Input
Amino acid sequence: MNNDENPRSEQPEGGAPAAPDAPTPPPAAEVSGRQRLKAGLWPPRLSRAQLIVAVLLFGLGLGLAIQVRSTSDDSALRGARQEDLVRILDEVDDRTQRLEDEKQRLDDQRTELENSSDQAEEARKQTLEKERQLGILAGTVAAQGPGITLTITDPSGAVAPDMLLDAIQELRAAGAEAIQVNGVRVVANTYFSGDAGDVEVDGKKIEAPYEFTVIGKPQDLEPALNIPGGVVQTLEKEQATVLVERSDEIVVDALRPAQRPDYARSSSP
Output
């Protein structure tokens, strides 16, 4: 048998074995399937329901974490010694007491300020009222109130200054609080001068009819002028006519300038 007819594998020169065959590439259908699987898994596509479930699970996990931490704190307190627990409780009680004391102090301070404010307001009102009263007596402020109007007509010119001064004295004794005569304010040092038919009040000449505007209680002022032998009867003897009228609203608006004393000073500090 001829050896040349037997098949032989050809070997490269040098006697080295032949290289193994290259791997066979995967089928095209298998490659495209993997790609489709990868594309379906990434990026993930979440539905609305899945997203809501994820948020709820996140919130549940956060709550569990907080609860575990709180439980850990409580466990720390439960594991503390009795002396430590007593000390912590005392510190809490001390702090509570300090807060209560501070609250009470602030309440007392507020009450004190309110009382001081009320007292200051009351003192201010009393000062203003006193100033008003003194102003009325001094004739530096106007006044109004119930009272009477006394009108003296002197056709014969027989009414003397002292008769008018007597009328002023009777009115003051009956409780008159403010008086003016023919536009001249009557005060504590008011004086009448001149002669019958030629009368002056505080140096100012006035003429009949003499009109007295008086603030006070009408029920006391009018009877004081009409007592037997009093002002009205005395003036009527001189042929003068006297008219007294009551009123619920009398205005005394003649003013005197405020005078500053030359020597007197207040003795209060």
Summary: The two ends are 160 Å apart (CA to CA). The helical segments are 28-41, 48-78, 82-138, 161-173, 218-225, 231-237. The mean pLDDT is 79.
